[in-house]
Structures are given as C-alpha cells and as structure tokens.
Amino acid sequence: xxxxxxxxxxxxxxxxxxxxxxxxxxxxxxxxxxxxxxxxxxxxxxxxxxxxxxxxxxxxxxxxxxxxxxxxxxxxxxxxxxxxxxxxxxxxxxxxxxxxxxxxxxxxxxxxxxxxxxxxxxxxxxxxxxxxxxxxxxxxxxxxxxxxxxxxxxxxxxxxxxxxxxxxxxxxxxxxxxxxxxxxxxxxxxxxxxxxxxxxxxxxxxxxxxxxxxxxxxxxxxxxxxxxxxxxxxxxxxxxxxxxxxxxxxxxxxxxxxxxxxxxxxxxxxxxxxxxxxxxxxxxxxxxxxxxxxxxxxxxxxxxxxxxxxxxxxxxxxxxxxxxxxxxxxxxxxxxxxxxxxxxxxxxxxxxxxxxxxxxxxxxxxxxxxxxxxxxxxxxxxxxxxxxxxxxxxxxxxxxxxxxxxxxxxxxxxxxxxxxxxxxxxxxxxxxxxxxxxxxxxxxxxxxxxxxxxxxxxxxxxxxxxxxxxxxxxxxxxxxxxxxxxxxxxxxxxxxxxxxxxxxxxxxxxxxxxxxxxxxxxxxxxxxxxxxxxxxxxxxxxxxxxxxxxxxxxxxxxxxxxxxxxxxxxxxxxxxxxxxxxxxxxxxxxxxxxxxxxxxx
Length: 601
Known about the structure:
It catalyses: L-seryl-[protein] + ATP = O-phospho-L-seryl-[protein] + ADP + H(+); L-threonyl-[protein] + ATP = O-phospho-L-threonyl-[protein] + ADP + H(+). Helix content is 27%, strand content 23%.
C-alpha cells in the first residue's frame, strides 16, 4: 500500500490521501520542482494488471491533458511508478489542486441558488464544453459532482474519465450492468446505446441547469433503468411549475437543451451560452417559449406509458458489464474542510430490473395474487369498450366511411438550422415550408429563428410549417455626397439613409481648407455600409484662428504701442511683423506724433 512520503518520478512527494474510489485514489502532493501543491490521481495497485482499467485511466489522461482552459481542471503531468508491494507499474495523473466545493455539495446543503446564479454557473460549464468539443472531446458525464466551484466563484469541469473523441463514440456505448455516465443526466441516445456526439453533453447540461434551478433533476426513479426510461420517453415538467421564481425564458432555454432528439437541442455549447446570455440581459432567447401549462391534458397525453418489461427493453442497451470494481466509486480532488481538499465520490449505480425487484415477495406468489385483479380489469375494459362503441353509434357518431383517417406526422424542430437544411428536414417529414424573414443580430444570421407549428407538435401530413429566417442586421449606406454638406444637412441625410439620431456623432476640426460648418470627412466613409445600430461620426470644419496686431497710444510716451495677437513682434521700424495685421480706427504710422503739438512753443 502506498504511504505518505512516497516519491513519484523523483519529483512529487505524496502528502495525504484526499479521496479513494473503486478505481483510483487521490493524493495531495508536493511538486518539489515547481514548489506547488498538486493533486495526484493514481490507479489502485490491485487494478494495475487489469487492461480495462489501464485503458480507461490512460484515456482520462489523454482526454484532459490536451485541454488547457480556465474552466477545466488542468492536467499537469502523467507517469508511471512501480508499486513496492506488487512490483507492478502503476500509472498516475498529476492535476491542478482545486480548493472549493462541487455543485453537488452546494445542492446537498439545501441552499437556495438564485436563478441568475444558476444560469451563470451553467455558462461556465458551457465555456468548458465549447472548448473540449472544439478539440473533438465529448465529456459524457456532466453532472453536479463533476463541476467545481472554486473559492473565488470560478466554475471548473473535471473528470474526463469516460470522455471519448467524437470519432470513437459509436463503438463503445452499448455493454451491460453499470450505466455509462450517470442515469439522472443520461441523454436519450446514450440510454438507447446510439451514437453520441457533443449534443449528449448539451442534454446533460440541461439536466444540470434544471437541478440548479429547482433543486432536483428532471427525472427521478427507483432505479437507473427507470430513470433512463424517463429520459427516453417522458417530457419533463417546466422548471417554473416547481418554482414560481423561474421565468418562461429560463423554461425555454432549459427545455430546448432537454429535447429528446439531438437535432431539436442547441447544436453547440456556444448556442446555448448565447441564449443564456440573452436571458440574463432581459432579451428573449431564441429557444421557443413554453406556452402550454404542465397540467394541460394534451401535454399529459404526450407522455406514453408502457409496461415495466417494455421499459427494460427500451433501456437495456444503456448499461454495460460491471467492471471488477468492488465499491463502484471514483474519487476526485476537491476541497475538504480542515485540510483544504475534499474527497468527492462518483457512485456507479447497478440497475435493478423491474421484472425481478421482489419487495419481499416471490414473483410466482405475486403473479398468483394478481390474477383475480387482472381478470376483473380485463372484463371491465371489455364491457366499457363494447358499451362505448354502441353508444357512440347510437348517438350520432360518424361512420368510418364518413370519417377517413388522416395521417399525422410530428413536426421536426428546425430552429437553428439553415434555410436549406430546414427545408430538407421538413420535406423529408412530409411537410410543406413557408418562409418569412426578419432582421436580428448577426450571431444567428442565415438561421431559422422561429417556426410555427413548434417542433414536436403533431399535424396532418402535407401541412404547412412557417419558418422565419434571420437575414441579419439591416445594412445602411452612408450618403456618397456627404462631404461639403452643412452639419444640419448631413444629419438630415444620415437620418433619411436609416441612421438613428442618437447614433450620429459630430466632431470639429480647425482647418482653412474648407468652409466653416461643412463636413470634411466621416467614419464610415461616404459610400460604405454600416449595420443597423452602428454609430457614424462626421467631422465638421471649424475656422482656424487668424493672427492680428493692434496699435494703440502709450499715454506715458505718446508713442504708439503694438499688441500682436497673432504672435508678431514690434520690429522697431514702425512696421508690424509679417504675421500681424494692423486694425483699429486710431491706428497711425509710428513716425507721426499723435495727441500733442510738434516743436517748442
């Protein structure tokens, strides 16, 4: 067993254990080369000979080592060291030692998280995911226990232990007995064992946001299987139905991230981040608003109920063989009161099949007791069905020949797609497309920003779906004849061109090369284009100051004295300096006396 004081790689001294789990133990250590404390995650020595654990451990190191981002726990180094007890080479990962709390700790403290803070925490997670997705890495296990909140309030995502490159995700998602990821944050495609991409992380982030807003995950069940089934088939209640402080805009963002079909969610972490930023600024998000109340019968009808056996069939591919893990727990380096760190564990739950959960009774006994009840239910249903049919026919129900069935299709969600992509998706669904246009921000230019009917609604085949395309901000052309206009004329011309009065800025420049009060330049230049809402600056000519020389009588000497206001000096010759001009009615040549008689009396 590894002991405190052990050195790894001739550089790291193990100080104290801060967490143990089924696969690894985490130590607080000292990096003597750089003089800093670090966290070292080391594979358990008794598992070092297991290829499965070796591969997973190496994958975590490889996934996180290349991710250098302020919202991701940094990996500094990796290596292997021989265990003295077993003689095996044991791999280890050297990580940033983060002091703070996980979001799971915050939620377990039953502290109310303000909705705005919940959105801000989620933005930090999305920043990390945007970076990892750009690097081709899907996390696959976003949940509160894997999100750290440092003492300074910074969000850090950790544990890329089951992360995979996007290109590899289709090969290894379906094996059985321990849920891949965590059931409460599992995307429907993960639960079905389908190919997974970055949108699975978007779904998990939606689950995280939901829990931060209302204090619980969107789906709760007795077992991982029952929870996974809900992810596949059931629609979550809007967060506002559980907490009146949640706004419809927050509902819209959360439920879009929780869309069952990946194509109906935000397509990137950046898109979701931008919508959250809109909500924080008081601007409506691009996500469709939730208009139907949670207790609407039609909404309730959308949630289908199937038998426990069918539920187990639906989610059977969401589990994999239990790895030789005696505790089913992984440990992470986080804060612990009194030591500066905390051991946080990730529990791997083993699903219990609904068909074998006995609750104290043998299956055969329960089936025998249920037979009378089942028989009564079947008979009652038969009587009601026959009676209902004849009653319907007797009291004017339309005959089958008068009521031909209409094929119904579900409207795909195309918000966020390009016009061409939306047309193609709707056409493949058997629907017609009507296009309208609107001008909004440049970040969604060329995309579908709304649709009617909304995605997920059932309509008759060949129905028309109206989609609205954002053409981007309106472009305004600066008048080409702006130069030479007066300030008033220029302002009027700019307003006529489409600029708002408040967006027109005026500066003045002294010059002798243009008439005073006329425009000599602008930014943007005449003839160039600007977006609606951009400001424009015009430069107006101002007359340059002119130097003057004023000649006045000196009462003491009866000699004229010059005051050169333009910088010229009296040359003593009775002539002003070249830079001055003589002004005033009493100005006379210096050689002529004034104010007295010449000669003696």
